[in-house]
Amino acid sequence: MAHRIGIAGITGRMGQLLAEEVPAAGASLAGGIGRPGSDKPAPPGVALCPGLADLAVVSDVVIDFTHASTAQSTAATMAKSGKPWVLGSSGLSAADEAAVETAARTIPVVYASNFSAGVNLVLALCERMGAALPADTYDAEIMEMHHRQKVDAPSGTAVGMGRAVAKGRGRKLEDVMVSGRHGHTGARETGAIGFAALRGGQVVGEHTLIFASATEHIALTHRAFDRRAFAAGAVRAALWVIGKPPGLYSMMDVLGMV
């Protein structure tokens, strides 16, 4: 019997792609719920459930691409349901992430800033480069660009890159992150990881990590041209997490990279 996948946020752009990728992966689309406050219809032939708890009942796993503002309530509902949860919403606060970690003590959760296989390979390289290139001689800067409708900055993927570099250097990103420089900022602090966020047009996603020293610059870039790469990766994660013990997993786990 095909695994049943429910989609939270099925009326959004990612949700509609997920609705196409689920049957393409040989799974069954159990249904979905729309984004809070959205009156967009579900894809043809897809049943909308009254709420997340109802969706979890009819699903073997729920994929969630809604909004950071729903993360804490969703975490509580999913933990109570006992069903696996794949979370792709970006812009989560420290409190939101703490709620996700709490849910992961009860259910298996795959939480990733980006579900693209290519991006996750880049994240692995970010950590290795952070470890190999000393912070006192190589300045790390991250630049990202997205479509004009994106509401959070820096992007979750950019933050993921920064965390990977910081981890490679034995630091926490929160201690070295510099975002949105403006005005008289003074000289750059040694060991800082800088972020620049660009917004415009309909760019799906571009991320570049730059290591700059006095003698050389090294740039690592990923460009996404189609959101389908994220949808396919999320469905892959959903099928992988079914049957796993409670815990907080990443796309690295799904890809067998840890």
CATH fourth-tier homologous superfamily of the largest domain: NAD(P)-binding Rossmann-like Domain
Mean pLDDT: 94
Total DSSP helices:
9
**Beta strand count:** 11
Descriptive report:
- The protein has 2 domains: 4-115 and 227-254, NAD(P)-binding Rossmann-like Domain (Rossmann fold), CATH 3.40.50.720; 117-224, Dihydrodipicolinate Reductase, domain 2, CATH 3.30.360.
- It is 35% helix and 23% strand.
- It has helices spanning 13-24, 52-57, 71-81, 94-103, 117-132, 156-168, 173-176, 228-241, 251-254; strands at residues 4-8, 28-33, 61-64, 85-87, 108-111, 139-146, 177-179, 193-199, 205-212, 217-224, 247-249.
- Helix 1 (13-24) links the parallel strand 1 (4-8) and strand 2.
- Helix 3 (71-81) packs parallel to helix 4.
- The protein is elongated.
- The relative contact order is 0.17.
List keywords for this structure.
258 residues; alpha/beta; Rossmann fold; Dihydrodipicolinate Reductase, domain 2; six-stranded parallel beta sheet; 9 helices; 35% helix; 23% strand
